[in-house]
Amino acid sequence: MQSTVASVSALDYANSGNNPIAAGGRVELHQLRCFVAVAEELHFGKAAQKLAMMPSALGRHVRLLEEDLGTRLLERTTRHVALTERGAAFLDDARALLAQADRLASRTRAQARGKAAGIRIGAIDSASAGLVPLLLHDFRARCPHVVVHLLEEKTIRLLPRLASGHLDLAFVRPPETLNPSIEFLFLFNETAVVALPSRHPLARRSRVTLKDLADEPLIVPERRSRPHSHDLTMKLFEEAGLTARVAQVAEEKHTIVNLVAAGLGAAVVPRWTSRMTTKGVRFVPLKVTTPGGLTRLPLAAAWMKGVRDPVRDEVLATLREHLGTYAKQA
Predict the structure, then answer these.
(1) Helix or strand or coil: residue 195?
(2) Between these two residues, 316 and 276, which has the higher pLDDT value?
(3) What are 71-118's pLDDT values in tens digits?
(4) What was the pLDDT predicted at 14?
(5) What is the pLDDT at residue 12?
(6) Domain map of the chain by residue range?
(7) CATH of segment(s) 190-296
């Protein structure tokens, strides 16, 4: 539901009394969404990342909300953000209103899509290369006339699109902080492998160890946009008592693989990344001998709670039916 046209009468929604929303006026849903994100993160920068917007814009929407309500919801300093008493009371009602609005928008879109027999699916890059083609092959046999629209993006951009009703289903890395309006289904862990320049001596091996990579320059994902992949590399070396020699940080998986092809270093990536054929790169299994044995990345399916969508449910039924086969290839 778009904030530019969707607003709610605060007086109609809330009971009078101590609840600050009873102050009257009209509150935009996007302002509520901004406030809830900050209230959950207690950090404007992290909340802005969650909503894929600039911190300055986020702060402006929260200030406008406070002005509309005539009360301060957050206490802010340069180092600290906290809910006021009225802000804490307002938070539950704000969440309930957003969930109701999201369900209404998604249900209406789902009904419209039912006539067109289509579904919008988002996926992170490794899932787009590995899981999604397998799933859609099996789904096509089940529902041959459904039109599927695909979007490849990072988790931090897919989840806001899902919450706003612009996606029906997404395949993501489960975030540290879960949105209570989104249902998550853990699928499996993706195995990590090492991308090496094809002429590198280690590329000729059947597998490599972390000790083999101790002196190699590494290309790692940018943590803000790919926290799971970034942390996997760093924790692997930490677990082995080694220090990762980070030589390059890149945001896109295609960029990382191309940097490897250019001979700038090695990279720990999901095994399905090897389906992104790149000349000059060889993907070698990673052998981990540390007690934790951390060589995997979690993958989950996500969709909005309380939203009926027959097409999405058919995709999920196909996924559950063949999940064991997909997991063996991850």
Answers:
(1) strand
(2) 316
(3) 999 998 878 899 999 999 999 889 888 888 877 776 666 566 555 568
(4) 40
(5) 40
(6) 7-108, 117-187+297-328, 190-296
(7) 3.40.190.10
Q: Which amino acid is at 258?
A: N
Answering whether pTM is above 0.70, one says no
- Domain 7-108 identical in fold to domain 190-296: no
Helix (H, G, I), strand (E, B) or coil at 177: coil
Give Cβ neighbours of residue 262 (< 8 Å, ≥ 6 apart).
Answer: 197, 280
CA distance to 242, 245, 304, 330, per residue, from 215 (Å): 10, 7, 45, 28
**101: Cβ contacts below 8 Å, ≥ 6 apart:** 1, 6, 8, 29
Give the domain 117-187+297-328 fold: D-Maltodextrin-Binding Protein; domain 2 (3.40.190)
As a whole number of Å, the end-to-end CA separation of the chain is: 36
The H or E element that residue 60 is part of is helix 55-69
Residue 282 forms beta bridges with which residues? 196
Question: 69: alpha, beta or left, given left = phi > 0 and alpha = psi -120 to 50?
Answer: alpha
> What residue has token string 């939203």?
307
Q: What is the mean pLDDT of residues 157-173?
A: 92
On whether the CB atoms of residues 178 and 40 are closer than 8 A, the answer is no
Exposed, middle or buried, 137 (CB in 10 Å: 0-12/13-18/19+)?
exposed
Tokens at residue 171, please? 């395949």
Question: Which residues does 21 contact at the CB level (< 8 Å), separation at least 6?
Answer: 10, 13, 14, 27, 69, 90, 93, 94
Q: How many CA atoms lie within 13 A of 210 on its CB side?
A: 21
CA 112 to chain centre: 26
Q: Would you call 125 helix, strand, or coil by DSSP?
A: helix
pLDDT confidence bin for 295, thresholds 50/70/90:
low
Rounded (5°) CA angle 59-61-64: 110
The structure tokens listed for 20 are 């600050």
Q: Which fold does the domain 7-108 belong to in CATH?
A: Arc Repressor Mutant, subunit A (1.10.10)
